[in-house]
Amino acid sequence: MQCNEDSAKIKFYTCSCFCTDNIFLEEYKLHVRFISEQQFRTDYQAVLSTLGCTTDVQFGNILKKIETEIDRRRELGVKSAERAVSIKKNYKPLHKEVYYLQKSYLAPEFLQIVNYSRSDKASKEGLLDFILPLAAPRVYRFPVFTKKFCDELIEELEHFEQSDAPKGRPNTMNNYGILLNELGFDEGFITPLRENYLRPVAALLYPDCGGHCLDSHKAFVVKYAMNEDLDLSYHYDNAEVTLNVCLGKEFTEGNLYFGDMRQVPLSDSECVEVEHHVAEGLLHRGQQMHGALRISSGQRWNLIVWMRASRERNRLCPMCSKTPRLVAGEGFADGFTEEAQTGASQNTSCVLN
Fold it and tell me: What is the dihedral of CA 52, 55, 61, 67, to 10 degrees?
C-alpha cells in the first residue's frame, strides 16, 4: 500500500491511552498505567514496595504525581499551541536560516546514502554497502549533518533557552529539551527531512515497520549536562522508526544501549552499547528497547525524530497494544488517522528480530 505523500492534508489523532499509559515515575524508574486507584494498587503496589515505596505517605505522593501528570497530558495540545503562537509572535531567532532545511546542512555521506536509496536499483543489501550495521540488531549509524550546521543549531537552541519565551519539555523522561514544532521547525525543516531524505532510507531498512510510509513525526531536542539530566532510563519510543542525531557539544561517556523489541521479556533480553558521535545519527525501530548511560562530563544535545506510519499504528496502538481509541489532537498529534476506526486488522507487521 502506498503512503499519502502530502501528510499536511491528513487529519491526525491521538489514542486515548496517551493520558493513562506509560506514565514515568522518575524516583522509581518505572513506567505505569493508571485507570483507577484500585487498578493501580493491584498492578503496582507490590512492585513499588520492592523499589522502596513502603509507606502510605509515599504511595499517596505517587498518586498525586500521577494525577498531576494526567491533567498535564489532557491540556498538552492546547498549551502547546498557545506556546507556539507566543513564540512565533515574540521570539527573535539568532540564526533564521537553520529553520529551513538546506542541502548544504547535510553530510556528503548522507546525501550519497539517500541518492542510492532513491535509485531504481536500490536494495537493502546494496544500501548496507554504505551503512555499516552495529552490534545492536537493526541499529544503523551514519553521518547526517555537517559539524558547522550542528554548531549553529545548538547556538540557536541555546539562544532560545536563554530567552523569556515559553518552553514545553519533550516528555516526562527528559526535563531539559525543546519541542521543535513549537519553535517553528516542523514545516520548513523536519517535514522535508522526513519525507525527502529519511523515508527512502527507512523504506529499505524497515519495510516491515512502515518505513516506506512514514507520514508524520514528533521532533524534539534533549539536553544532557552536569547537574541536569545525565542519562535516560530504558524505554521504547512512540514511533515506528526513530532517528537520534548527536549534535554536540563536548562530553565524555554517555553511550546509548539497545536491547530487544519491547515484546521480548526483559529477562530474555541482552543489551549492546553503541557510541554516539557528533553529527552522526542512529536509526532504529521505535519499539526497540533502549536507553542512554550517564555522561561523566560536559554537555550533549541530541535531535530526536520519532517517525510514525499511520498504516502501522492504526492497526494496533504501539503504546497500549490495543485497537486505537481516537481523540482529537493538534498538528500531527500521535500519528493515528481515521482508518483506525474502520475495523482494520489488529495485526502489526513490525517483526521482533
Answer: 90
pLDDT digit string (tens) for 85-119?
999 999 999 999 999 999 999 999 999 999 999 99
Q: Which residues contact 320 (CB under 8 A, 6 or more apart)?
A: 15, 17, 21, 33
What pLDDT score was predicted for residue 172? Answer: 62
Residue with cell 499551541: 81
List beta partners, residue 14: 327
Strand, coil or helix: what is 306? strand
Query: To which residue does cell 522518575 refer?
Result: 26
C-alpha cell at 194: 522526513
d(CA 203, CA 210): 7
Question: Could you tell me if 141 and 274 are in contact, meaning their C-beta atoms sit under 8 angstroms apart?
Answer: yes
What would the grid cell of residue 227 be?
547537574
Q: Smallest Cα–Cα separation from 242: which of 148, 157, 143, 138?
A: 138
Long-range contact set of residues 50-53: C-beta below 8 Å, sequence gap at least 24: 52/28, 53/28
Residue 338: count other Cβ atoms within 10 Å of its Cβ: 13
Q: What are phi and psi of 218, to 5 degrees?
A: -130, 125
Res 340 pLDDT > 60: no
Q: How far apart are CA 333 and CA 308, in angstroms?
A: 10
Helix (H) or strand (E) holding 113: helix 108-118
| DSSP element (H, E) containing 305 | strand 295-308
The answer to whether residues 347 and 38 touch, using CB atoms and an 8 Å cutoff, is: no
What is the rounded (10 degree) CA torsion for 208, 213, 219, 222? 20
Taking the C-alpha atoms of residue 311 and residue 213, their distance in angstroms, rounded to an integer, is 7
Give per-residue pLDDT as tens, 265-316: 777 788 999 998 999 999 999 999 999 988 888 888 999 999 999 999 999 9
d(CA 115, CA 278): 23
Distance from CA of residue 128 to its chain's centroid?
24
**pTM for this prediction:** 0.88
